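hiii so um. not sure if this is the right channel but i have a protein structure encoded as tokens and i wanna go backwards to a sequence. like what aa goes where. can anyone help
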């Protein structure tokens, strides 16, 4: 250690040599030589770290004082501690050396507690059986931090290195953790390992060292840890968990090389996190990439390889030697350095990312690996979960790079697409009709001769811009116009889930502006996907292998429009280990780039031939295994029945007859494909042309249907049947034009002639009203019907004199030969004229009667035969026997005027004035009666006990009698006996009918003195109201031999507390029945809630002067509304209605 420090300071160029000597096989000898040389040349200054024991326990000591040693008298100074037991560095303690080493050698456990700091200007050496680091611990070394311990025999005795505290900071050029038989844990939140370039301001910048090196039995680096290091190498004998989420990233000087190896399980990443590294080397028995984790290789690398010799990577006789993975998987069983050396020195290809599993790797759903070149090897199984993507898209050569990049011309503002196994598209100038190429693709392209594997990454499209901007285009983070990269997979069995993808597509071009002019680069070509696998298993899903060329793009300006060329498709090669047809769960796409932008697609001319100029050609999808004869394509799928193949594509068979033969064998290997004749045809050995039997034609040799006959290879219509539809053909599969037929009816003539009374194409019976003679084509109408009130009766008439009869409303032919419509009847049906009309014989319409003398008369007889219609006086006439049917006033006036005109006039005027006086006095009396008569309303005090109101139908008049429905109100339905209610309703409706005598009396009074009639009717209505009130009371109380309507049951109110009261207005025009429950508590009463129920106010009256419509303002239910939230507004509404009415 002293010698190392000396040479670092004085003889720096020789330091690596002695460092390797120090790490050589004879470790004890090298250390001895180092110490002797250091002692002889330099001399040393050693400073001890004070450590004290407590409580009489000599096996535990505590560092409770901070120590700072900045200078010494020798070339170097060591701040050291040696202790046989456990050591605790107490919280907040700081151990610091200026430019010297800090060393602790502990035989037990070293515990560095919260907030402690270890700072060295050179190296920090921590040697203990177990090391535990708490929160907020800071370790800083200008050179390196070394953690681990060996015994006196050089054996590793480390059991555990646990950096469990949060916010632990380790700053060093390198961090070396050696715990071969123990566990290494770094799981504290927000802990940082900043290695390679020390950022501490008190340290000078030192060259980058090895970064993080960890050798252990098992390791766990948690998701809260930040790794900022140029290189991370972790080797675990059993399991390794590296979950540093989003913290494996680029340092200030260069990217991170991440090397991971585990003897058993290796878990990488955490959910929805991303690693950004420049190199990835992973090896374990079982490798897992966590759900949603992204591993992205950030350097834009390309793989280049010379033409590979036959047998190095591909030999058609020894396919296994062409796969890189088997020897790589074998090396994965050794240590990490052996694997790294082999992939660097023995594998000619240089891969950004190498993931090797001796047994299986598993990429969980939605995880991704993105690299320019990716090698994934498994000794047995690989699994790609749902949504997993392995991508080398746009990671190949940049624009204007590679062997087959697209052309750029100064005269053209668009560039050509890159070529690969096909030509790229051409850059072109276009208008709405014409597309003219102005920049070509690469003049060369690859060819595939099965002697080599195309492993170099794909070429980029043409830059399309001046050379000064091409570098800017290449540095774009989106990699426009770049070709696809390389993905190499090898395993025995591949398991895939939905939406898994392996893509190596090229990128579309990009629009750049230079000197106010727009340019567009060409599309990159698709990359390479090479896969060695025996079987692919998926659960109803399909794995996509895509190596599509970059799309063509457009620019449009007023001067001209340009479209760049699309990139050519890439290469997909699959080795199926001599098991043809195994790729049924794979979709392969090696299409060339086309126009995909909707606006660009609309602008470019739609002509297919012109568009082919800018589209890239398709790439190659092949089977690396030579397919057996009859099997072709990348999956060695069998040629379908009817095709044959020996090379890359199936060819259609052409040796069977054109008709009535089918091919019988798939996967046939020559053009003489086996076939057979279809069923129903003689076998091909005796019938090589598969000809049909007599009367059969067509590809399926079907029989000609009835009505046709076989002529060569088609059926012709028969034409020898007479009289169209009167006959029919009878036999199918006929062989000549004389087809057999038969007539449709037995009574046809020898040539199917129609008999008399039949006609038409089908020789059907003539309908009623028509006739025909023998062999007639059509039926003719009959013409002997005497009138429109006659109708024909006979089908299949044989002469023009057809049989007829008179319609039902006209006398029969025996009495009425002409079927005339008699007087008083008219119309097409000769119906009787209604009352008030008349008609003559054979009339088409009835005429109105006009001989009625007055409005007090009415017509009385239908079907009247002349204009003098019979009439009679109505009940409103003064006398039913009066020929003139005069009213009472006119009748009396005529009598008075007949004797003395002066006396008559005076008498009439006296009666008229008397009537007016009576009406006025009666109206005033009626209004006063309404204000004082309360016999027909319930009192206000009963309002809290009110249950429901049932309105009667009608106005209690001759024309509109009071009635009540049989439906019981829902509110009191549980209180009413149904049988008693029905009896009550029947009796009420019967009693409320107006008597005939009353009707006669009303009519007489209207004739003698009309002003007195309303008062007579009011008196009668009120009498019926009184009777109604008594009947309702009787049925409510069960008196006068009436059955009470109330139900008596436990839990219901007593019958005496239930009341049913009839109520009506003073004029007895509106009636209703109110129901009460006197057992209710007054405190339980609530006013009406008009949001929950509808309150109906019914106007009484007849709408006349004496009895106008009106709402009763004294109705308790109206008062109840006025006492609610409406207040006086209710009265305003009632008064307004009454004034208008």
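sure thing!! here u go:
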């Amino acid at each position: 250690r002293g010698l190392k420090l000396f040479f670092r300071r004085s003889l720096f160029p020789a330091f690596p040599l002695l460092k390797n000597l120090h790490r050589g096989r004879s470790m004890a000898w090298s250390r001895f030589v180092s110490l002797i040389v250091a002692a002889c040349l330099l001399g040393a200054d050693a400073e001890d770290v004070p450590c004290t024991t407590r409580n009489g326990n000599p096996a535990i000591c505590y560092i409770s004082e901070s120590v700072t040693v900045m200078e010494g008298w020798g070339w170097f100074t060591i701040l050291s501690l040696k202790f046989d037991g456990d050591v605790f560095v107490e919280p907040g303690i700081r151990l610091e050396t200026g430019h010297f080493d800090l060393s602790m050698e502990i035989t037990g456990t070293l515990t560095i507690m919260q907030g402690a700091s270890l700072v060295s200007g050179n190296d920090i050496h921590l040697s203990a059986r177990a090391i535990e680091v708490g929160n907020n611990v800071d370790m800083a070394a200008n050179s390196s931090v070394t953690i681990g311990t060996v015994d006196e025999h050089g054996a590793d005795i480390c059991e555990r290195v646990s950096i469990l505290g949060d916010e632990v900071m380790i700053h060093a050029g390198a961090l070396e953790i050696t715990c071969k038989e123990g566990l290494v844990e770094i799981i504290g939140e927000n802990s940082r390992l900043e290695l390679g370039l020390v950022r501490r301001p008190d340290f000078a910048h030192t060259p980058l060292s090895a970064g993080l090196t960890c050798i252990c039995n098992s390791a766990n680096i948690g998701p809260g840890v930040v790794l900022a290091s140029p290189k991370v190498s972790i080797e675990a004998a059993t399991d390794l968990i590296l979950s540093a989420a989003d913290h494996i990233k680029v340092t200030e000087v260069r990217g991170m090389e991440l090397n991971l190896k585990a003897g058993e399980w290796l878990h990488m990443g955490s959910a929805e996190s991303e690693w950004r590294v420049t190199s990835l080397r992973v090896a374990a028995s079982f490798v897992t990439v966590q759900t949603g984790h992204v591993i992205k290789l950030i350097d834009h690398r390309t793989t280049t390889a010379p033409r590979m010799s036959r047998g190095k990577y591909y030999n058609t006789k020894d396919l296994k030697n062409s796969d890189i993975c088997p020897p790589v998987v074998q090396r994965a069983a050794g240590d990490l350095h052996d694997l790294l050396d082999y992939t660097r020195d023995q594998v000619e290809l240089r891969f950004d990312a190498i993931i090797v599993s001796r047994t299986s790797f598993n990429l969980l759903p939605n995880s991704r690996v993105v690299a320019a070149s990716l090698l994934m090897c498994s000794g047995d199984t690989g699994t790609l979960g749902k949504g997993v993507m392995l991508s080398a898209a746009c990671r190949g050569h940049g624009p204007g790079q590679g062997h087959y990049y697209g052309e750029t011309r100064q005269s053209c503002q668009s560039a050509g697409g890159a070529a690969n196994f096909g030509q790229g598209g051409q850059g072109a100038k276009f208008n709405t009709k014409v597309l003219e190429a102005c920049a070509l693709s690469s003049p060369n392209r690859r060819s595939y001769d099965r002697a080599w594997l195309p492993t170099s990454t794909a070429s980029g499209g043409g830059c399309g811009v001046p050379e000064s901007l091409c570098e800017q285009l290449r540095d774009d983070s989106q990699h426009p116009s770049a070709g696809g990269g390389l993905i190499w997979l090898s395993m025995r069995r591949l398991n895939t889930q939905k939406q898994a993808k392996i893509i190596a597509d090229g990128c579309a071009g990009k629009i750049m502006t230079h000197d106010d002019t727009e340019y567009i680069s060409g599309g990159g070509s698709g990359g390479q996907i090479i896969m060695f696998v025996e079987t692919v298993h998926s659960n109803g899903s399909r794995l996509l292998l895509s190596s599509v060329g970059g799309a063509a793009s457009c620019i449009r300006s007023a001067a001209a429009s340009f479209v760049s060329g699309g990139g050519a498709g890439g290469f997909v090669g699959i080795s199926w280990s001599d098991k043809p047809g195994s790729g049924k769960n794979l979709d392969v796409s090696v299409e060339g780039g086309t126009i995909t932008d909707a606006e660009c697609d609309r602008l470019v001319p739609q002509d297919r031939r012109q568009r082919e100029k800018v589209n890239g050609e398709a790439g190659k999808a092949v089977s690396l295994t030579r397919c057996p004869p009859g099997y072709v394509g990348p999956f060695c799928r069998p040629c379908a029945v009817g095709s044959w193949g020996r090379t890359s594509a199936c060819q259609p068979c052409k040796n069977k007859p054109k008709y009535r033969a089918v091919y019988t064998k798939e996967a046939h290997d020559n053009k003489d494909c086996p076939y057979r004749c279809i069923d129903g045809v003689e076998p091909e050995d005796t019938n090589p042309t598969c000809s049909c039997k007599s009367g059969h034609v067509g590809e399926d040799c079907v029989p000609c249907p009835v009505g046709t006959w076989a002529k060569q290879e088609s059926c012709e219509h028969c034409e020898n049947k007479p009289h169209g539809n009167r006959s029919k053909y009878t036999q199918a599969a006929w062989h000549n034009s004389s087809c057999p037929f038969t007539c449709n009816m037995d009574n046809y003539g020898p040539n199917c002639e129609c008999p008399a009374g039949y006609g038409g194409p089908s020789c059907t019976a003539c309908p009623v009203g028509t006739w025909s003679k023998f062999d007639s084509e059509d039926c003719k109408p009959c013409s002997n019907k005497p009138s429109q009130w006659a109708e024909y009766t006979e089908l299949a008439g044989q002469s023009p004199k057809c049989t007829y009869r008179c319609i039902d409303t006209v006398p029969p032919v025996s009495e009425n030969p002409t079927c005339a419509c008699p007087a008083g009847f008219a119309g097409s049906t000769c119906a009787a004229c209604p009352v008030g009309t008349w008609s003559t014989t054979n009339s088409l319409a009835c005429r109105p009667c006009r001989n009625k003398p007055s409005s007090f008369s009415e017509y009385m007889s239908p079907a009247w035969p002349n204009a003098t219609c019979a009439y009679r006086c109505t009940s409103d006439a003064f006398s039913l026997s009066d020929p003139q049917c005069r009213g009472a006033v006119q009748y009396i006036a005529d009598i008075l005027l007949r004797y003395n005109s002066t006396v008559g006039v005076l008498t009439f005027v006296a009666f008229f004035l008397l009537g007016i006086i009576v009406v006025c006095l009666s109206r005033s009396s009626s209004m006063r009666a309404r204000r004082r008569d309360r016999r027909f309303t319930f009192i206000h005090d009963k309002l809290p006990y009110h249950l429901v109101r049932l309105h009667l139908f009608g106005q209690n008049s001759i024309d509109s009698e009071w009635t009540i429905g049989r439906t019981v109100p829902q509110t009191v339905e549980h209180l009413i006996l149904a049988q008693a209610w029905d009896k009550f309703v029947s009796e009420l409706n019967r009693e409320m009918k107006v008597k005939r005598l009353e009707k006669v009396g009303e009519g007489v009074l209207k004739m003698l003195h009309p002003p007195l009639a309303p008062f007579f009717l009011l008196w009668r209505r009120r009498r019926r109201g009184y009777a109604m009130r008594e009947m309702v009371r009787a049925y409510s109380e069960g008196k006068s031999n009436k059955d009470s309507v109330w139900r008596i049951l436990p839990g219901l109110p007593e019958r005496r507390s239930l009341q049913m009261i009839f109520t009506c207005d003073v004029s007895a025009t509106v009636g209703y029945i109110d129901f009460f429950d006197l057992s209710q508590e007054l405190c339980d009463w609530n006013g009406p809630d008009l949001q929950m129920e509808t309150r109906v106010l019914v106007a009484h009256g007849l709408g006349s002067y004496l009895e106008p419509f009106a709402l009763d303002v004294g109705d308790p239910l109206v008062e109840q509304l006025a006492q609610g939230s409406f207040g006086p507004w209710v009265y305003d509404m009632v008064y307004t209605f009454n004034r208008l009415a």
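oh and The chain has a mean pLDDT of 81.
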